[in-house]
Amino acid sequence: MLSDEEFALQRERMVRNQIERRGISDARLLAAMRSVPRHLFVPPDEAEFAYQDGPLKIGSGQTISQPYIVAVMTDLLELKGGETVLEVGTGSGYQAAVLAKLAGCVHTIERFEGLARRAQETLRRLGFGNVIVHVGDGSLGWPEGAPYEGIIVTAAAPTAPKALLEQLAPGGRLVIPVGGRDGQDLQRWVREGDRFEVESIFPVVFVPLRGASGWGEDEWERHAEWM
Ligand code: SAM
């Protein structure tokens, strides 16, 4: 196992080479990514790979996203501090921790209870008191915490779920990968009154969003054949 100093060095290199060099310049976001110990959010046998330029397995067939993707999706929310944010797809809790450094309060929802409990324990141990972890179907959002200035979905959806758009505050932003098994389009939706502006960012590859407004088991498998 590497020492804390060695992990800190790897983290610094990750931010410089994978994030800053690719054009992310928001000082608060860079500071957040410099401070969150990503290696403590992955299974112990994956810790030495935590700062590599890619996703990693976290159990239950799920992944923690590539650091650069975490940075881009967070950047698109344009958080200034104090906002209420919803994350759909807690996974390891790492993305929630980065959001917690930048916003006032983070609600995060995960469908696998085991992952949610592990993420909650990691966040508690590291002192993230402004993250609330829920277990459930995040494709329906978390109406109890709405409205949200930012919503981030870390799994691929067939379309932007209506419930999530409805839970956005005026001027709020939804960042979501939309598409099927062969790849998705990272989209940002911005609420303007009852209208939404949508822009396409770049192609991404995520695990499926399941649930009422997500992909059914067979649909996700068959989607590749339709294309
Ligand atoms: N943000 C996570 C992190 O920082 O580790 C990575 C998330 S992983 C790419 C996607 C997660 O979305 C998985 O943990 C998966 O179980 C979860 N997920 C899929 N469908 C969901 C749903 N309807 N509600 C809540 N979570 C869901």
Describe this structure in words.
The chain has a single domain, classed as Rossmann fold (3-Layer(aba) Sandwich), CATH 3.40.50. The protein is 33% helix and 27% strand. It has seven helices and nine strands; from the N terminus they run H-H-E-E-H-E-H-E-H-E-E-H-E-E-E-H. It has helices at 4-20, 27-35, 67-77, 94-102, 113-125, 162-166, 217-226; strands spanning 56-59, 62-64, 84-88, 105-110, 131-135, 148-153, 168-180, 183-192, 195-204. The strands form two sheets. A seven-stranded mixed β-sheet has the order 5-4-3-6-7-8-9. A two-stranded antiparallel sheet has the order 1-2. Helix 4 links the parallel strand 3 (84-88) and strand 4. Helix 1 (4-20) packs antiparallel against helix 2 and helix 2 crosses helix 4 (94-102). The mean pLDDT is 96.
Summarize the entry for a quick read.
With 227 residues, this protein is of the alpha/beta class.
Instruction: Look up the CATH topology.
Output: Rossmann fold
- The number of helical elements comes to 7
Distance N to C terminus: 45 Å
> Which spans of ≥5 residues are poorly predicted at pLDDT below 50?
none
Bound molecules: S-adenosylmethionine
Give the overall silhouette. globular
Name the CATH superfamily classification: Vaccinia Virus protein VP39
Which architecture would the CATH scheme give at its second level? 3-Layer(aba) Sandwich
The description of the largest β-sheet is: 7 strands, mixed
Spell the H/E element sequence.
Answer: HHEEHEHEHEEHEEEH
Strand order of the largest sheet: 5-4-3-6-7-8-9
